Amino acid sequence: MGTKKAVFFDIDGTLVNFRGQMPQSAKKALLELQRNGHKIILCSGRSRRQMYPFLLELGFDGIVGATGAYVECGNDVVFRHSMSSEEIHIVTGVLDKAGACYSAQAGECMITSAQHRDRQLARFHALLDDAEMIEQIWRHVKITDHMEQMEGIEKFVYYESAWPVQKIREHLPDRFDVTESSFEAAVDDSGEVTSHGINKAYGMQKYLERAGIAREDTIAFGDGPNDFDMLEYAAVGVAMGNAVAALKDRADYIAAGVDEDGVARALQELGLVQG
User: Fold this and answer.
1) For the segment 165-182, what is each residue's pLDDT rounded down to a tens digit?
2) Residues 6+ apart with CB under 8 A from 70
3) 4 C-beta neighbours (distance < 10 Å), count
4) Would you give the DSSP letter of residue 16?
5) What are 48-93's pLDDT values in tens digits?
């Protein structure tokens, strides 16, 4: 692979395990990738505000955030999509009927209700042994009982739904996509709601257009349900060893797990770093 590549990385379950830890080998490989002239781009369901500061400090060449609703190339924001007040009203209505607790991602903040805040905080503390990261996220939370009045909402994340993902999907119109959660091991009571067609592959396309890089020079690493389109769009799709089975079926290459130096070892085998 002598041509310079644009390499897109999911965060949770790919660069960072579900305890918020990044293998030192992955950090070293990312820096070597850049030194070798390749572009490294975060491609996550997280909004920019929710991304780990230690990741952003590595100096990525681009960011695809909020499952494709937000795209940076270098220091420039090149694409941003937000839901209309009508769309927000539709989504919250369905999630309320499903008994889910939920929040909206809106660029530089999260938005939720007082009713849902405590449920979500308890869940974050149960999943993440990282008080600093939780504080980083929750100090930028806006509380409202009228989400439809809020601007800049990119997507919804929900937990503890009494309805499975498929039932929520059936109750929302075609203008939305519903995907199983990628923040933790996939469970049927949690997921994310995005605008139809706004996904990681779309965000990758927006980045490549601005960066002047061809699709055939792309590689993508992922592990979860919201990485399906990302791996299918990339010229080379890499599924982590800990990835869901359906993603491995779509992958061109299966790496070792995130805690088994999977990113670094795969980049070595693809000839992009020496290690």
Assistant:
1) 999 999 999 999 999 876
2) 47, 48, 63, 64, 77, 79, 80, 81, 107, 154, 203
3) 14
4) B
5) 988 989 999 999 999 999 999 999 999 999 999 999 999 999 999 9
